[in-house]
Write a structure and sequence with these properties.
The chain contains four helices and three strands; from the N terminus they run E-E-H-E-H-H-H. The chain is α+β, with helices and mostly antiparallel strands and about 120 residues long.
Length: about 120
Amino acid sequence: MKTLTASKGLRGLIAIGVLAAVSATAAGSDPTRQTVRFADLDISQPEGALALYTRIQKAAAAVCSHYVFMTDDALDRCVSDSTAKAVIRVNRPVLYAVYNTKSKKPLPTPTLLAGPQPR
């Protein structure tokens, strides 16, 4: 099962990582943690990558909303930084392309992806 976990960092940002499995109890009881499942998506296709991008953004927004920020810009930065970190962690070209069309600050698309790509 492919999942992403979003968790609150010390500086008010989310660290999002790819995990083999996540306990539903742990993820459900912690408002600073969101699980994003994407085993049902084909993220090598634009539609699947867009769906994953949307899920990541919603999870980042949910986690960031549990913290007090001095400005709306700081909240927006938390969501965008967290989303970018998740995209980098997932490391799939089509997801980068979706992110870059939606984001004000595009990420450089890696020319060489590490490791074999699951299908």
